[in-house]
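Collaborator request, handled under Task 6.
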Amino acid sequence: MQSSFRHSLLVIFLSASFSEVGLAHDLLAQPILDWELATTSNNVAIYQQDTDNGHIKVRGIVHVHNRPEAFVELLEQTQLAPKWIAHNQAVHLLKANENVRLVHSKFDAPWPIRDRDMVTQSITYVEQGNVYIDIVDASEKHPELENFARIKGVSGRWTLNAHANRFTYIEYQGQANPGGNIPIWLANRTLISSIRETFENIVQQLDNPSLVAQD
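Structure tokens returned to the collaborator:
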């Protein structure tokens, strides 16, 4: 990542550290218009939204004691992906250019369902004090594998917002077509459980209460 971009993240973090103190838990307690709360655990909340094709959109929210840059760094360390992304076998970086990354991800699936893979392109940028990571499907940029069903129609966005007392609010919204012949009800249920597991793992990887500012 370019040093200028890292400097922007640092400025956001330091500015938030001196802003008005608020309770991070309140962020998770607020109802969200047009979204249904699917599950909660500790400081994780997962929402779902119906779509015309039956495959739900998901929205995950969590807060951690850390800086926004820490999550960006976690994404960049592809070798750590299986430690926090649910059911992940591996993530391979295919191409990187400044703040744009092309990656190939593989996922385990229970027998007799075929394992899944997906190819996505992401762009990371700072806008109005928030860090955004936009993700789009890039299936055409890598050949399909014989023993994997390709996840397609991937679209999503990570939003990282630095709050007072050195909390970072992390949100993901996204959807995808899991491919193959998985029943929609099963695909939706698996998506909810996978997103919840992923966000709980984010807490394990990044939550560091020692970073909380001391008065």
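The cover message to the collaborator said: "The radius of gyration is 17 Å. The domain at 3-211 is CATH 3.30.530.20 (Alpha-D-Glucose-1,6-Bisphosphate; Chain A, domain 4). Please let us know whether this matches your experimental observations."
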